[in-house]
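Fold this sequence, please.
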Amino acid sequence: MVIDSCEIWELPEVFYELIHLTKLKITNCRCFFGSPEAIENLISLEVLKLEGCLQISKVPDSIGNLKKLKFLKISLNYRLKKLPEHMDQLKCLTHLIVNKCWLSAWPESIGNLVNLEVLSLSECTRLSELPESIRNLQKLNILDIDMCVNLKELPEHIGELKRLSNLRMFNCRALRKLPHSVSDLEQLEELRCEKWAVTHLWTPLLPSLKNLRFVVWTLDSS
């Protein structure tokens, strides 16, 4: 089900009965601020996308009730400042995409999303750090932190992500050093960053990254 560019404040009451709904996409509903009670009843939901809903300031704790949710995308929601701790109950989640939001930190409980394969935080410009618990995401293939311009460091134990194959970190201009464990990313195949980052951050580590086949030099921001 797609709800696009509608002047609604919350989901209609009929949503309380859609217990078999598997996909829901709400886009460009600028007045929509969320309906926690309705969402928690969508127990069969596997895909949830909230994009361009400018009034959403929080994700309800009850999202943890969506036990079958596999794909969650929240983007262009600039009032969203934090995520609930109860997200760690989403054990089936494989894709978590939170782009262009106003988050300054992530809950440590993200490390309990043990089936997560894709984590995207691009253009979360207030984000200054990632939780150390990210080391527990042993199925993670893709980590996207493009345009996280205030991110100052990567987690010390990021090298424990043994399946990480794609790292996107274009224009992370506050990031001036990498943890030593980065050299343990044995499956890393593609790195996206600027020329200065390759030269100053990654060059000393390249001999240890045997599977790194592509270094994508995007437009230098320095």
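Residues 195-202 form the longest helix (8 residues). Strands lie at 2-4, 23-27, 47-51, 71-77, 95-101, 118-120, 142-144, 166-168, 190-194, 214-218.
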